[in-house]
Amino acid sequence: MKKYTIGIDVGGTKIAYGLFDEALNLLDKRVTKTNQASKPEEMLDDMSNVCKELLKSNGLTMEEVKGVGAGFPCHIDYENGYVITGSNLPTWKNVPVRQLFSERLGTRVEIDNDANVAALAEQKFGAGIGNKNMIYITVSTGIGGGIIINDAIFRGDYGAAGEIGHMIVSDFGYTCSCGNVGCLMASASGPKMIQYVLDQMKHGETSTIMDYVGEDEELSGKHIGIAAKDGDKLAQKAIERLGDGIGIMFVNLYQIFNIKHYVLGGSVSKLGKPLYERMNLKFAEFIRFAADYPIEIVPAKLGDDVGIVGAATLID
């Protein structure tokens, strides 16, 4: 009887694999490095081998698997199973992944954008339970989103709905990886928060932030968060700036979709209370009726497994 599912979370630096039973309980997992230079066929060969090894180590065969779901950090043609483009996988362009991967595995394969599968996971098993409408946002190296309307992912006409990081929120600031100036991702992502701090110190602003960075470490959002908690003014200003950008994002999403439940994931969301307070303050500044029609911005619950759980849910 086919009762097992494999969920795969393909990231820019690592690929996570999860083996699930029919109740979607996680039985075992593997993590490998992503070779961004690999050709699609080579990477799919490697992924296929990891899936088979995962099954073998648990005394299972592919004949017992209902299917394999995979989330990619890419623009996806969901209906036809293609990876269209992806900045983290530069060699992947118009690749028929569903067909190629299914041929290698001998079982059903479904693919989707990584933020979409994370949204599905949080709605079914995490911070979105009980909400038929919700938006999942991940703020980390980049910013992405998954939009759920009436219990289904909204993908748009071209499959690229939810590219929240490329929402234009200003006409100045840092240049985004897409080439535009003013994208949310160019002001409110983790790397841009770090860049802002470094630029301010370069221009003479005093700060103790670097005192929190270990000898073999690079400055990260974690260090900025600790410094802010200890009273560093620049760190606090960086978090406020981040919160303002994300707060404006919520204003725009609310005005467009009129959805009240938002789940915030990604490493930057771990900055905690100061970030959430600033986001809510900025939201209330622009939405005058926020007290009468409040929104819920809650932290994601599934942690690092959100991608493999969501990918597994692609297999009915």
UniProtKB/TrEMBL annotation:
Q: Which Pfam families match?
A: ROK
Family the UniProt entry places it in:
Belongs to the ROK (NagC/XylR) family.
Q: What is this protein called?
A: Glucokinase
Domain of life, per lineage: Bacteria
Give the matching PROSITE patterns. ROK
**Could you tell me which SUPFAM superfamilies the record lists for this protein?**
Actin-like ATPase domain
